[in-house]
Design a protein that fits this description.
It contains five helices and two strands; from the N terminus they run αββαααα. The protein is mostly helical. The chain has one domain. A two-stranded antiparallel ribbon has the order 1-2.
Length: 140
Amino acid sequence: MSSSPNRLVAVIFGAVYLLIGALGFLVTAGVDFAATDGGLLLGIFEVNPLHNIVHLLIGAALLIGGLKSVKAAKTVNIVVGAVYLLVGIVGFFIEGSALNILALNTVDHFLHLVTALVLLGVGLGAERDERATTRDTRTV
């Protein structure tokens, strides 16, 4: 794997989200699949089985993208970052309602926003001038 910031962030975040998704099942025994109230992961993050599956899918996408190529990592970082930005914002409005099928709580919203900022920051900011740099060195 190259020293690409996109690949590194995708692999690290992917592994963390896979771990969080798996650990979530330890606290969701007896919780309905899409319950609006879930078990507490690490004592503060509310999760239900659907939320755990989403974490596993996000983790797998990030890990696979990070291991595949810089382009794949960059793409998955931007897409997941954009989705997490949306989920982070929308979460504040659906908390406590029947629409909260992922059992999101306030701590989740802030974590999703931080994740979004990191993924979008790296995805949009790193390696964006790779082709321009290559052209510049050929013309010098």
